[in-house]
Design goal:
The complex is a heterodimer.
Chain A lengths: L7 H29 L1 H4 L13 H7 L4 H4 L14 H8 L10 H9 L5 E2 L12 H6 L4 H5 L16 H9 L22 H11 L14
Helix pairs in contact in A: 5-6
Chain B lengths: L7 H4 L11 H18 L8 E2 L15 E9 L2 E10 L2 E7 L12 H11 L8 E2 L2 E2 L2 H15 L7 E5 L5 H13 L4 E4 L6 H11 L4 E4 L6 E5 L10 H10 L11 E6 L4 H5 L2 E4 L2 H15 L11 H16 L4 E5 L5 H13 L7 E4 L9 H13 L5 E5 L3 H4 L6 H5 L4 E6 L4 H4 L3 E4 L8 E4 L5 E4 L12 H6 L9 H12 L5 H11 L31 E5 L13 H4 L8 E2 L4 E3 L1 H6 L4 E6 L2 E14 L2 E9 L7 E5 L29 E3 L1 E14 L14 E3 H6 L28 E6 L8 H9 L7 H5 L8 E7 L6 E7 L8 H5 L5 E3 L5 E3 L9 H5 L6 E2 L10 H5 L13 E2 L5 H13 L12 H5 L5 E5 L6 H7 L3 E2 L11 E4 L1 E3 L8
Parallel strand pairs in B: 7-8, 7-15, 10-11, 10-13, 11-12, 15-16, 16-17, 20-26, 22-25, 29-40, 30-39
Antiparallel strand pairs in B: 2-3, 3-4, 5-6, 5-17, 9-14, 18-19, 20-27, 21-28, 22-26, 23-24, 24-25, 24-28, 30-37, 31-32, 33-34, 35-36, 38-39
Helix pairs in contact in B: 3-22, 5-17, 6-11, 9-10, 9-11
Amino acid sequence: MSQIFHRSTNTISKVSIFGAVFGIAGLLWLFYAVDASPWVSEVHVAREQPIQFSHERHVAGNGIDCRYCHTSVERSSFAGIPPTKTCMNCHSQIFATSPFLEPVRASFRSGRSIIWTRVNDLPDFAYFNHSIHINKGVGCTTCHGPVDRMPLMWQAESLQMAWCLDCHRHPESYVRPREAVFRTDYVPPPDQEALGRRLVAEYHIRKLTSCDTCHR
Amino acid sequence: VSPIDPFSRWAGDDIDPGNPVARRTFLKLMGASLALGGFGACTRQPTETIVPYVRQPEELVLGEPLFYATAMPMGGAATGLLVESHEGRPTKIEGNPNHPGSLGAADVFAQAAILGLYDPDRAQTITNLGEIKPWSEFLGAIRAALTAQQPLGGTGLRILTESISSPTLAAQIRDLLKRFPSAKWHQWDPLSRENAKAGARLAFGRYVDTQYRLDRADVILSLDADFLCDGPAGIRYARDFAAHRRPEQPDRMNRLYVVETMPTSTGSRADHRLPLRPSAIAAVAEQFASAIVAPSGGAGRLDARTNKWIEATAKDLRAHRGACVVMAGDAQPAYVHAMAHAMNASLGNVGRTVVHTDCVEAEPVDQIASLRDLIADMRGGKVDMLMMVGGNPVYSAPPDLGFTDALAKVTLRAHLSLHNDETSALCHWHIPEAHFLESWSDARAYDGTASIVQPLIAPLYHGHTAHEFLAATSSRPEQSSYDIVRDYWKSQSRSQDFEADWRRWLHDGVVPNTAFAPIDAGTPKGFAALRAESTPPPFELSFRLDPSVADGRFANNGWLQELPKPLTKLTWDNAVMVSPATMARLGATSTPADTGGEHGQIICDVVELSYRGRKVRGPLFPVEGHPDDCATVHLGHGRQRGGAVAEGVGFNANVLRLSDAMWYGGGLQMIKTGERTSLACTQFQHAMEGRQPVRAVTRDEFVKDPRVVHEGDETPPKTVTLYPDFKYDGYKWGMAIDVNACIGCNACIVACQAENNIPVVGKEQVLKGREMHWLRVDTYHQGPVEHPETYFQPIPCMHCENAPCEVVCPVGATVHSDEGLNDMVYNRCVGTRYCSNNCPYKVRRFNFLLYQDWTTPTLKMARNPDVTVRSRGVMEKCTYCVQRINRAKIGAEKEDRAVRDGEIQSACQQTCPADAIVFGNLNDPNSRVAKLQAEVRNYSLLGELNTRPRTTYLAAVRNPNPELEP
């Protein structure tokens, strides 16, 4: 009796079995990789803005505190985006005729807002509150990265849930003393874990991982 | 992806709807749909923008709401409110705790006013004969007409307003009448309490207002008065009534007797309710007066049971001299009100539980007479210029007066209103009115306390206030309403520092010391001269304002249209309501269409109502506890114009409402048409079926042994579970709902809807049982169909400790939180609906379709930014207002303290007039909720299922008169 299947069938079947397993695994990996990539999360992608505003210049160069512009960061969920008036406090005197600042002056004259592109953007079903993080010793740069070295703003972290949960589960690895929260040159000490554990106790930091902490 | 349309080109004949789809083709298409649907979800987040202020207002902290005090005028009195504003957008209304008419609570109309403000159907342009015109042209037209009137002293000038409590507006009109001495001011407001006013005039010879101190009343007799839900003081009365009815203080529990026709919230709270036809109530009142004031010997006309009822009630009233109240309802004729005044005087209540004051209405008049005069003048061609300040008389005026025909004879007709409605259509000029949340004005509460109405937002649709409309007739037509109102109060103020006072009034929401002082109205007289009709007509028709849309002014508000009316649970319709016995006699039926899990449709016979030569058709609906041989219809429906939501809902009962019988009349005939129609009803099973969802006992039983409420309780011990117990180190949230206090007014439902961005689904979807309310109020009847005991039970999510929904969710979209909440995570939900199937309380709601309006710009503005707007395919339910919990927790954490008791109020709790809902931390033994849950009246709904709900109920305790107990 002759063979029903050709000899090559053996190879084909082995390849397809392995192929299915590795193929599916590969696809899953690809999906994960794409999802975590800057193409999706836009991490480290400098965003075009209507005005070439440099945080590097204003923070590192001029030493302006975060709260001069982001006024509500200690009180509200939203850190605050400065009104045109805040820019004009200085720029009615300094670089008052610079062509780069014409959109600012135009906004101030016309009463029309400057429309900025959002850099750190959470999905609408996630509710983040700046004030409580500031209050519990999470520094600005912990999430926003080295703002003092960003000529144009980019997103420093993925802002994906796994990243949030990392800190919510292990806050001791990230918290810093309250007085250092706004310092952009802060470097975590070598004994961060020890300091972190002390601060977690001192600031009554709870490891909030219930869904309703952020989703409602 | 629909398997029918998009693929038909490729799939050829296989997919033709005429041919059955081949199984393989079907599977292929479904597979492709699923894959495409899956990939469709792989979108990148869209780029968003941030738009800062140019000059940021000083008091504004971005992301933090601000609250402003204002007041909502309605029907000649106002309720004080606190309105939440997010970056200039008002999003939520609460009662103002400083305001005597609110005490922090609000009713359905106030709660729904947010949607009324953002209503996209509101009038948006000034029109003259349908053409868009600028305000300046309107001013020119008015000026020209007034110049012509000047030499005549205003003989041809008429102003028609609704009932007004605004001192400024009244001053403006009086000023106008001074300048045009022959002009006339007429009033017509379907919400006006005409009979109460006429009754006061009958008894005291002049108009006085009557207030009741229910906090001091031990026995209350209501003669058809729905005082808990109706009228300008309803919220206050509900609070005082409920506070005086706590079974924990059995000696202080009040007792309520109600004689009424259509079952109401008040009637449901009664310890003894006597259902009677409207005309018979006057006879009962007379009998009461005979027993209490002076014997008049008319007892023969009532049956023995009624006489016994009256006798026992009168005895109870007499036993509580000075601590009881007799009230007459707005639908009862003037002499019943006069009799109530006489009874209160005889019982020594005046000055104790009954207080008379001057009228809150700026200019109380007999409005029917006023309207009749106006129509006569119009018909006689004496009116050259009619300015209508609000109102919709073409729709609401009694049809026999002929307002519509007479209106055509007026040379210049101008109408100010929120919507371009039936009246606007017949006017030359239509001016869009500014909503009260866009207006500067003032108004008085039921007790006279004045509030400044301040705007939360600039007019969205270029609306003008009544003040500006009337200023058009003055020498300063461009004056803003802010200046008009402020100037008026400045002229009234004798203070050194008006500016400081003004700011204080705006902040507090009340002008101090403006409540009217009690007056001595004199001895009531005159009632004896009038007598009730001796023989009641064969079949009566009774009219009532709709509990949801009132006289139709809220008909374009989807929240209110979809709100299940108390007791009937009807939405999106009105009906001809009769007793089940009358319905059977007419050979009519109502059949719940309960197919395949869809529930919400009740199919009713349509009847034709013939009443004094006028006819209208409507569906016949049975109401338990309604008296026989009469029918009740709700006004406010059958609108022809006034918005996409309002038009075509229900039938217009105003057609039958004649000026000599505004609230009831005899001679109704009902004929079955043979037609059947569907009504959207959210609950048509009111029997408890032995499961006792509401536990109710009498006061005597409760005093003897409070444990009686747990009789037959089958709640298993807490150890009966396979799952380990949850540990709660911090907070443990819980809620207690007092069934004894709940009056079923529905304010909580609308408050929840406003707070949690809950969509309106429409009648079609309610018919399928798909209404989205997170909180519903179930109504249960117990006892005979003719006069059952009625209980209301608000049902939010129970947040069960052993939550049946949690264990069946395949994607972990509903989970237990560290603080005991049953979290609903929208972004995880894939819409299997297993959780809803497994919920014994049926509190989960599914977005079968895209119910939210994602396109209308103003509706986007109405939303609470702290709550996710849900899309199609997602399950949702009550969260215990987790956004409020988080806000309070974050605030407390920043101050390094625990959340204080009472700091978090859920939206339903905050607005509850009866204080029936209490939320808080169960881990704190001193919290109000923990104390309530420790009370012996506390029980779990369906506790036998071992779900261990953390929303629990406090049993109802009735306080019946032992003499009337069967």
